[in-house]
Amino acid sequence: MSEAVVSTRIRLARNLADYSFPVKMSEEEKLELCDKVSEVAKSIMDFDRIDMQNLTKTQAVSLVEQHLISPEFISQPVGKTLLLSKDKTVSIMLNEEDHIRLQVIKNDLCLDDAYALADEIDTKLSENLKFAYSDNLGYLTQCPTNLGTGMRASVMLHLPALQKSKAVSRIASNLSKLGLTIRGIYGESSEPTGAMYQLSNQVSLGISERSAIDNLSNIANQLVTQEIKARDRILCDIEVIDTVCRSLGILKTARLINHAEAMSLLSNVRLGVAHKIVDSLSLSSIDKLICDIQPASIIERFSDDMSVKDRDIKRADYLREKLN
After folding, report:
1. How far apart are CA 127 and CA 139, in angstroms?
2. Is the Cα dihedral 260, 262, 263, 265 positive or negative?
3. Beta bridge pairs of residue 5
4. What are phi and psi of 260, to 5 degrees?
5. 3-class SS at 142?
6. Number of other CB atoms surrounding residue 199 within 10 Å
7. What pLDDT shows up at residue 172?
8. Where are the alpha helices (DSSP H) in the chain?
9. DSSP string of 11-51?
10. Which of 199, 223, 276, 301 is 20 to 30 A (C-alpha) from 158?
11. CA distances from 94 to 38, 188, 193 (A)
């Protein structure tokens, strides 16, 4: 499955019954909640605590680029805390839209494994924290669209063939009828750079976690099947194979490359790796490069004091180093 599936994410939204929603909380209440939840969470797992107000903007954006936090979480950082596991598979955002946003990310299509871990942590948190819950509405959340299970499950898909055939827009309109949505690499309102798409559930009220996961898994498998069939058609074309090989050549030799071009070229190379056109690289190495060459990640890796051109030079240097 990994030729078209990059990763799986399970996110649970929870709120404490004794506090107002974050939008109504004072700074003191937010800091108190961060301390309270952090203490409980650290008794469950070895988390690093990161208070967002202590990070530079570059460091914060880099965490977004790694899909460890949401773009919304880095605005107004005072009173917000990130709890991050050592292997970065589990992150807990405190005082984002809800008090607790628990997230588990795993490679490939493994919704059951990701949910099992998220559910285990959620259960242990609930033993020491009183969650806001209604027998009629389920878990209470600031946004009504998260009521019920409070769960958002998503799969990151690489769909270059479906994108090339312009099938994604048609698929997106059909998915909404099934309670699912497909978006860009960073979720809502983001663009699908590098042919990367997030497929996720939209409905959390009136449906169980099991049903939502099964539905998402079934549709993800269908999309992967469509993508592989579309790849079989386009990979018979010598021009497509040539594009893959030229993309790798540019990445190995370029001295200046911007983010959009790098993502497009890495998408082509990932397609080539998945189908043995390129045999010197692995899918995991390409997926890591896609994360590492994001703008803030490049700045954090090399220097906070660099122009856009300097950043593009460093990105090219980094890609040459890793690919040659």
Report:
1. 15
2. positive
3. 157
4. -60, -45
5. coil
6. 22
7. 86
8. 27-42, 57-65, 111-126, 160-164, 168-175, 209-234, 238-253, 259-274, 283-292, 295-302, 308-323
9. EEEE-BTTS--GGG--HHHHHHHHHHHHHHHHTTS-EEEEE
10. 301
11. 9, 20, 29
Phi and psi angles of residue 153, each rounded to the nearest 5 degrees, phi first: -110, 140
Give the phi and the psi of residue 43 in degrees, each rounded to 5: -80, -15
Q: What is the pTM of this model?
A: 0.91
In terms of Cα–Cα distance, which of 210, 150, 209 is closest to 13?
A: 150
Please report, for residues 26, 55, 129, 178, the alpha-carbon distance to residue 82 in angstroms, rounded to integers and kept in the order given. Answer: 18, 11, 18, 33
Spatial strand order in the sheet of 5-14: 47-51, 81-85, 90-94, 100-107, 5-14, 151-158, 196-201, 180-183
String of DSSP letters for 232-264: HHHTT-HHHHHHHHHHHHHHHH-S---HHHHHH
Q: Which residue reads 């301390």 in tokens? A: 35
| Bridge partners of residue 82, in order along the sequence | 50, 93
Q: Tell me the percentage of the chain whose pLDDT exceeds 90.
A: 87
pLDDT digits (tens, 9 = 90+) for 216-253: 999 999 999 999 999 999 999 999 999 999 999 999 99
In the chain, the amino acid numbered 104 is V
Phi/psi of residue 154, nearest 5 degrees: -145, 155
Residue 122 in tokens: 């959620």
Higher pLDDT, 174 or 1: 174
Q: State the DSSP code for 229.
A: H
Residue 256: beta bridge partners? none
Nearest-CA neighbor of 315 among 305, 304, 194, 301?
Answer: 301
How far is 118 from 296, CA to CA, in rounded Å? 28
Angle at alpha carbon of residue 145, lines to 140 and 149, rounded to 5°: 50
Structure tokens given for 21: 């929603």
Instruction: Identify the burial level of 144 via C-beta atoms within 10 angstroms of its C-beta, where 0-12 means exposed, 13-18 middle and 19 or more buried.
Output: exposed
